[in-house]
Amino acid sequence: MSQHRPGGPNGRSGGVPALPDLPEATVARLPEYLRALHAIAEVGSDTISSEALATAAGVNSAKLRKDLSHLGSYGTRGVGYDVALLIDQIEFTLGLTQRRAVALVGVGNLGHALAGYAGFASRGFRIAALFDADPERVGEPINGLNVLHISELATVAAAESIAIGVIATPAAAAQDVADALVTAGVTSILNFAPCVLSVPEGVDVRKVDLAIELQILSFHEHRKSALTALPGGYGSPNGLAATGTEEAVGT
Amino acid sequence: MSQHRPGGPNGRSGGVPALPDLPEATVARLPEYLRALHAIAEVGSDTISSEALATAAGVNSAKLRKDLSHLGSYGTRGVGYDVALLIDQIEFTLGLTQRRAVALVGVGNLGHALAGYAGFASRGFRIAALFDADPERVGEPINGLNVLHISELATVAAAESIAIGVIATPAAAAQDVADALVTAGVTSILNFAPCVLSVPEGVDVRKVDLAIELQILSFHEHRKSALTALPGGYGSPNGLAATGTEEAVGT
DNA sequence: CGCGATTTGTGCACGAGTTCACAAGCGCCT
DNA sequence: AGGCGCTTGTGAACTCGTGCACAAATCGCG
């Protein structure tokens, strides 16, 4: 998706830690592997096979091995992967060796929940500041943090060196907030508002739309009932649901 | 991802409404198009070009046209798409002509917010029941609905004909809840718990992991700072950030 | 010390998804 | 009526991701 080999097929020469140019699909799965590894480490295993880790992460083992091979060779043939080493390696790759500060904008229904979500803290993030445009909400303490007015965003972001912002405002306000975040130096945005954001090049945006997820499920429901509800109906002649392999939709 | 052509390249014969066997990637984008269309309809336009709709939905126009072409030919060359017609068509495809009942399990931090999320209601869903395992919480009214104990899941799900379940419990409880949902007849699950669910064939699962989204952003942050912070550093020899094309991560 | 059991890392083929580029179709204007 | 400009729908090339299957590597044991 961005930075590129200048000339050759892989333009490194000195190559020390050597940013390995991971496929985006792999990057999206690394956090899942990391979570599975932490769970395994807690149980106490020192090493784990690709097969076992793959099951724990909900993928097949070939994919997992290929993903991990992009990070380098951290497994031992005949044995498996060293759990602790692999955790370190993935955390380094994801940039989780430092605890990253996050700004959360919009302390409404959803924002309130996000501010209290323990999963952020336990997985490498620190919610460093809460913002809202509503003066009524400014000053309100949430989870040990006072809500600030959005006008303070730039100053606070600089002081706390915040590079990641989360938008949990209504859709109508989201673009303005995004602009403010970018101005404040934020270069990664997680957007929960149901709308498309336009940001300058160099800023990454990921979108999570809760209703969309349900709508996708709805599609599959619709499809299922069309297939089963009509006994000798149209569609596929045989009543067998005929999957054979895995079910479950990918993320 | 599942049901399949028995023999021929496209095993229809009678083909009445003719389930068109959409690519999964297309399905995932349809809700976004739908949202954009509703916004456009509100402004008052009767028709819209693929170019304009694509911009509103954050994709390029070729992709949008190909996606829509899978539903059938609902555009007029030289003019564009009829907004109202297209809305109907996408809503039908997604199975949103009926308002779908959803069960929400886990009324903690996040579940509470989801129960009050207006976006569900406005986009075709009705939260029909709230469940929790904690007796303390049972009876608590949230948004006009009383929290029920999870043991009542089966009865209520049947009575309300609930086919979609949302899991917003801690990870430790999620698998048990999923099993209970499946037993209660639920065939689509939206999982907010950070863990892999195993479900029988025929049940769809989609996962939303808030921390994972941040971790993916963290990766890109890490990459960015490695490229810019080190002037003539290690890694790639030339300091040029060299993007050139689009930025912004896909969902 | 060598052999077999085990598991990683990867070359290759395949399939899904994306993008380009253009022919076909439609409305409008003259 | 005819031509022109605009926009859709789609064939074809291409990129990206996946999965199989196997060679290479390591450990343990006789």
Describe this structure in words.
2 copies of one chain form a homodimer. By secondary structure, chain A is an alpha/beta fold. In chain A, 39% of the residues lie in helices and 16% in strands. Chain A is built from 9 helices and 10 strands. The first copy, chain A, has helices spanning 24-43, 50-57, 61-69, 83-93, 109-115, 118-122, 153-159, 171-183, 210-228; strands at 47-48, 75-76, 80-82, 100-105, 125-132, 141-142, 145-149, 164-167, 188-191, 204-207. A 7-stranded mixed beta sheet of chain A has the order 6-7-5-4-8-9-10, with helices on both faces. In chain A, a hairpin with a 3-residue loop joins strand 2 and strand 3. In chain A, helix 2 crosses helix 3. Chain A is globular and about 60 Å long. Chain A starts with 23 loop residues before the first helix and ends in a 23-residue tail after the last helix. At the A-B interface, helix 1, helix 5, helix 6, strand 9 and strand 10 of A face helix 1, helix 5, helix 6, strand 9 and strand 10 of B. Chain A binds a DNA duplex (30 and 30 nucleotides) through helix 1, helix 3 and strand 2.
